[in-house]
């Protein structure tokens, strides 16, 4: 009789919802507040995990060996990480750190009413009944009917593309069927290539960018408070004991990146000239930082292998 091998440990972790979600009035975009900060931070992104994959939604073919693969996102024929992917990843970390609402709720998943997405409150057609209070992250990143005050530009690759690209075989991806009423993130485990590199059922090929590849993006922010800027910096992992994940194939332990700041400019009161910002000073402001320890532990580098099979 054959015994089934024990299931591979799953590569994700959960962060519990904290009790106090404090919603506040959102800032009108046309109302410039003197104490608020406007500026930009240039960032280099380095791929730390074995691979990074951002799907284009398309697939491609190669002849030898003959196979079909999912292609990496491109803009003007060049590999880029879309700014929206970076923003989404930073947002979900910011939500956990600041105990904000769950902006993405999958169907059938139930969460406590305290953390329901703010957009449900904004939906009402009766303007007098509209709720004007949003959680910290919706105020900063935006929600339905309310544009955010931060943006990331598409990140361009700095190296010669060809050197940094590889077609990688991975097990198919499935969403874990787990609903613990908690926030889910993927861990930083080790990816090992599959022995059999031929096409087979339940596996796919993806065009991935290799470890060590560097990209460049610009984070722009307008009219945000120091505590919001601090939250934003914390959520990128800058000067923190963790790095965050972006893109797809996270269940295969792809996507961990390091953000390295290299130019930080804040607009002066004259609204024309800029001064150098200090990341060290900004991140001292912990007004919106509710929890960070669980993320540090969850995102820390693990020696364990990433699961190869389906789970
Ligand atoms: Zn919200």
How would you describe this structure to a colleague?
By secondary structure, the protein is of the alpha+beta class. The strands form 7 sheets. Strands 3, 7, 8, 12, 13, 18, 19, 20 and 21 form a 9-stranded antiparallel sheet that branches. It has a 3-stranded antiparallel sheet with strand order 4-17-14. It has a two-stranded antiparallel sheet with strand order 1-15. The longest helix has 16 residues, at 83-98. The two termini are 23 Å apart. It has helices at residues 83-98, 119-122, 136-141, 161-164, 226-236, 279-282, 293-299, and strands spanning 12-16, 24-25, 37-47, 51-52, 55-62, 67-72, 74-75, 78-81, 133-134, 142-143, 146-147, 150-152, 155-157, 165-171, 182-186, 188-190, 203-210, 214-224, 244-245, 256-267, 274-276, 301-305. Strand 20 (256-267) and strand 21 form a beta hairpin. Helices cover 17% and strands 35% of the residues. It has one domain. Zinc ion binds next to helix 3. Residues 100-101, 118, 134-135, 137-138, 143 line the site of zinc ion (ZN).
């Amino acid at each position: 009789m054959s015994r089934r091998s024990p299931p591979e440990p799953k590569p994700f972790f959960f962060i519990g919802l904290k009790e106090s979600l404090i919603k506040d009035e959102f800032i009108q975009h046309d109302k410039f507040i003197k104490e608020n900060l406007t500026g930009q931070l240039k960032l280099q992104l380095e791929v730390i995990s074995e691979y990074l994959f951002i799907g284009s939604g398309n697939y491609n073919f190669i002849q030898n060996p003959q196979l079909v693969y999912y292609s990496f996102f491109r803009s003007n024929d060049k590999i880029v990480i879309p700014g929206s992917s970076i923003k989404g990843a930073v947002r979900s970390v910011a939500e956990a750190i600041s105990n904000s609402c769950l902006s993405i709720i999958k169907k059938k998943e139930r969460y406590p009413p305290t953390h329901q997405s703010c957009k449900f409150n904004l939906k009402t057609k009766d303007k007098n009944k509209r709720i004007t209070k949003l959680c910290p992250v919706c105020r900063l990143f935006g929600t339905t009917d309310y544009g955010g005050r931060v943006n990331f530009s598409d990140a361009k690759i700095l190296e010669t593309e060809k050197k940094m690209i590889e077609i990688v075989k991975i097990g198919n991806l499935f969403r874990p069927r787990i609903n613990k009423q908690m926030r889910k993130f993927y861990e930083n485990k080790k990816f090992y290539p599959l022995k059999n590199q031929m096409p087979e059922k339940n596996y796919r090929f993806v065009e991935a960018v290799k470890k060590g590849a560097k990209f460049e993006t610009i984070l722009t922010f307008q009219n945000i408070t120091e505590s919001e800027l601090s939250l934003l910096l914390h959520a990128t992992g800058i000067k923190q004991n963790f790095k965050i994940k972006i893109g797809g194939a996270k269940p295969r332990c792809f996507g961990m990146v390091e953000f390295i700041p290299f130019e930080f400019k804040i607009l002066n009161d004259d609204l024309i000239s800029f001064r150098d910002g200090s990341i060290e000073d900004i991140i001292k402001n912990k007004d919106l930082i509710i929890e960070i320890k669980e993320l540090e532990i969850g995102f820390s580098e693990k020696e364990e292998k990433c699961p190869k099979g389906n789970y």
